[in-house]
Amino acid sequence: TRENTYQAPDEEKLLYLKAIEFLKPFAFMNREPYNDPYAFEQNHEANLQEMINLYNELLRQYPNSPYYRHYQETMELLKQMQKEDKEFKYEILPQGLRVGFAEDKTDRNRKLSREERIECYIHYLRYADFNKTTPYKMTFEELRAVESGSEPILPNLRLVQIGNPAVPSLVMLLEDRRPITFVDDTDKIPARFYRYQDAAVEILEHITKRKLPIELPEGEYFSGYMEKQTPEKKQQIITDIKAWVEESMRNLPEQ
């Protein structure tokens, strides 16, 4: 393919790397909003807008690049996330040291329903904390604390704690390509992204305590695997996973 033979000019490569700089898997304190949610929100909003501006520049300057569709898709996903942030009415606030809990911005005395908390924690997956493994994985170190009844910090663990009731919402993310972080240590274009659909797979595996019913190539993410499939094969994979989830849920304790 043209992507395999195309040598991106240095200017295109530098502009692209600058655009994805804001999606690096930073350390917990830099990436998570719990210590100062107000400052974090302002900083995140500025970073998101800067990414969108840089992707706009990539589209404007390199309309004939074989990566044009990749730039376009990513920019549209970032715009979607920007719109979601502006419309999102919940937030996770600090409660003690590094502990987040969900609140309604418009009525802080109102206790959120379980469905609202699921919505909130799924939204906050975009700030997820990562271990630098090969490939990167979300941080689940607190899983023992969750299993012993302690309150977790991270949104992915909150969803594991909710368990069975969160599964239908997670299944709906299996084709969700919104980027969470980029995961390559190289300067290649396009970089691999860890996406919402990858987070959904990891969380589902932790809830069901079972591995995905497909074997991913070593070092590959679910999203990257899906990119290589035909539309028909993608739908078959999603159908198989949904059947696997239904079977797994039958074996989960009621919550």
Number of β-strand runs: 6
- Class of secondary structure makeup: mainly alpha
**Largest sheet composition:** 2 strands, antiparallel
Mean pLDDT: 81
Structure report:
This protein is mostly helical and 255 residues long. The chain is built from 12 helices and 6 strands. The protein has helices spanning 2-5, 10-20, 28-31, 37-61, 68-87, 114-123, 143-147, 155-162, 167-171, 196-208, 222-227, 231-250; strands at 90-94, 100-104, 130-131, 137-138, 179-182, 193-195. The chain has a two-stranded antiparallel ribbon. Strands 3-4 form a two-stranded antiparallel sheet. Strand 3 (130-131) and strand 4 form a beta hairpin. Helix 8 (155-162) packs across helix 10. The longest helix has 25 residues, at 37-61. Mean pLDDT is 81; it is low at 94-100.
Summarize the structure.
By secondary structure, the chain is mainly alpha-helical. The protein has helices at residues 2-5, 10-20, 28-31, 37-61, 68-87, 114-123, 143-147, 155-162, 167-171, 196-208, 222-227, 231-250; strands spanning 90-94, 100-104, 130-131, 137-138, 179-182, 193-195.
